[in-house]
Write a structure and sequence with these properties.
The chain is an alpha+beta fold and about 130 residues long. The protein has 2 domains: about 60 residues, Sandwich (Immunoglobulin-like), CATH 2.60.40; about 40 residues, no CATH class. It is built from 2 helices and 6 strands; from the N terminus they run ββββββαα.
């Protein structure tokens, strides 16, 4: 799951901007034509990263700026991607198991979202990890 995209913006200059970046974590890229940072970071090692974003206009005028970028690790049971496994994650999985919302949270890979997936989230919320119960 991608935790991006996010756009970098600039004002001033003339013509078309060309974007580049250094220091982005593995898995993230910046769109040369639109300044859109997208992808899924593949590591948290080195976080916070210092990303240097540069922009140049058609007259070769350029500017750059450094940004801190923190990458957090998410548990597969953190279905709401808040950084913690809690009752909101259990509610999402329970609703999906009941068919209230179309689901892609089949955490144990058995082809259905059901009570086993709910138990996995509850176990993770209680600190027992995210293994099938």
């Amino acid at each position: 799951m991608s935790y991006f995209p996010t756009a970098v913006m600039a004002t001033g200059g003339t013509g078309i901007y060309t974007w580049s970046a250094t220091g982005l974590p593995n898995g993230l890229t910046i769109g040369q034509g639109d300044g859109m940072i997208s992808g899924t970071p593949t590591t948290t090692v080195g976080s916070p990263f210092t990303a240097v974003v540069a922009v140049a206009d058609t007259n070769s005028a350029s500017a750059h700026r450094s940004y801190p970028l923190t990458v957090l690790a998410f548990s597969p049971c953190d279905v709401k991607q808040t950084g913690t496994v809690n009752v909101a994650d259990v509610q999402v999985i329970t609703n999906q198991a009941l068919g209230i919302v179309a689901a892609l949270n089949d955490l144990n890979g058995d082809g259905v979202v059901n009570v086993v997936d709910v138990r996995m989230v509850i176990s993770a919320a209680l600190g027992a990890g995210c293994a099938a119960q």
